[in-house]
């Protein structure tokens, strides 16, 4: 067994199956990991916080692609990104006759503080055009289009957490599936893309697993488990 590194792990497409359902086989792995676990996701903060809470692990979280960082150990919450600009993009996109695509209640955006997301079944080209007008970019995570601030990402989120915890980002193992994991892959010491990852994530990873989704995560962490 290799020495266990601190772990940064993505949620959708990495801890889940393709339906976004978390695979319960990952729960004991995360609970028993002997080093720091950072849950780093494009989802809004309540989702990774709840995952840590229900798992009974420390809430050390990057949410909204780095727009939100929470470190329970130091009771530190950091918000970055340009929420006003992303809300203006949403308004301009609606004025073009499009919808965000998550219905009236919109649980995908309801708790966001730094970016917005649009459903993959909505047109991408007008969204990218409007986002550019406001100095933002659109990330396709395979689960949603994220209209986000290009100066903020999971890599800056990991760096912020490491500054709080006096850790070195290059000590981390990072596991993910999408272009929104790429910057975390760049700063982590070892980056592993699961087999279902997009081409950007695969190109920025040190290696790609044989297995897909949560099976790929379990394969990635197997060398570090007793
Ligand atoms: O919510 C998304 O679109 C992607 O989330 P993830 O970063 O956990 O894969
Ligand atoms: Mg993902």
UniProtKB/TrEMBL annotation:
Gene Ontology molecular function terms on file: magnesium ion binding; phosphoglycolate phosphatase activity
Top-level taxon of origin: Archaea
Keyword Ligase listed: no
Binding site for substrate: 154
Coiled coil: none
Keywords for this protein: Carbohydrate metabolism, Hydrolase, Magnesium, Metal-binding
Active site positions, chain numbering: 10
Gene Ontology cellular component list: cytosol
Keyword Hydrolase: yes
Reactions accelerated catalytically: 2-phosphoglycolate + H2O = glycolate + phosphate
Stored Pfam families: Hydrolase_3 (PF08282)
CDD domains xref list: HAD_like, HAD_Pase
Top-rank EC class of the record's enzyme: hydrolase
Binding site residues for Mg(2+): 10, 12, 177, 181
Enzyme Commission number(s): 3.1.3.18
InterPro entries referenced in this protein's UniProt entry, alphabetically: HAD-like_sf (IPR036412), HAD-SF_hydro_IIB (IPR006379), HAD_sf (IPR023214), PGPase (IPR006382)
Cofactor: Mg(2+)
Family: Belongs to the archaeal SPP-like hydrolase family.
Described purpose of this protein according to its UniProt entry: Catalyzes the dephosphorylation of 2-phosphoglycolate.
HAMAP family, A to Z: GPH_hydrolase_arch (MF_01419)
NCBIfam families: HAD-SF-IIB, Pglycolate_arch, SPP-subfamily
Protein name: Phosphoglycolate phosphatase
Biological source species: Haloarcula pellucida
Taxonomic lineage of the native organism: Archaea, Methanobacteriati, Methanobacteriota, Stenosarchaea group, Halobacteria
């Amino acid at each position: 067994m290799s020495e266990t590194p601190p772990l940064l792990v993505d949620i959708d497409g990495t801890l889940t199956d393709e339906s976004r359902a978390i695979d319960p086989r990952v729960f004991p792995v995360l609970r028993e990991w002997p080093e720091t676990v950072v849950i780093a996701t494009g989802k809004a903060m309540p989702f990774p916080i709840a995952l840590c809470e229900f798992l009974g692990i420390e809430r050390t979280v990057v949410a909204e692609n780095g727009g939100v960082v929470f470190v329970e150990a130091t009771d530190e919450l950091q918000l970055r990104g340009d929420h006003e600009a992303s809300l203006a993009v949403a308004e301009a996109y609606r004025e073009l006759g499009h919808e965000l695509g998550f219905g009236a209640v919109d649980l995908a955006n309801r708790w966001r503080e730094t970016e917005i997301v649009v459903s993959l079944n909505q047109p991408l080209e007008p969204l990218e055009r409007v986002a550019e007008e406001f100095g933002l970019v659109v990330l396709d995570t395979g689960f949603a289009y994220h209209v986000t601030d290009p100066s903020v990402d999971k890599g800056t989120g990991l760096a912020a957490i490491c500054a709080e915890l006096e850790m070195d980002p290059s000590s981390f193992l990072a596991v993910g599936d999408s272009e929104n994991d790429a910057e975390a892959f760049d700063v982590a010491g070892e980056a592993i893309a699961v087999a279902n990852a997009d081409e950007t994530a695969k190109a920025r990873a040190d290696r790609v697993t044989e297995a897909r989704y949560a099976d790929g995560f379990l394969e990635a962490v197997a060398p570090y488990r007793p």
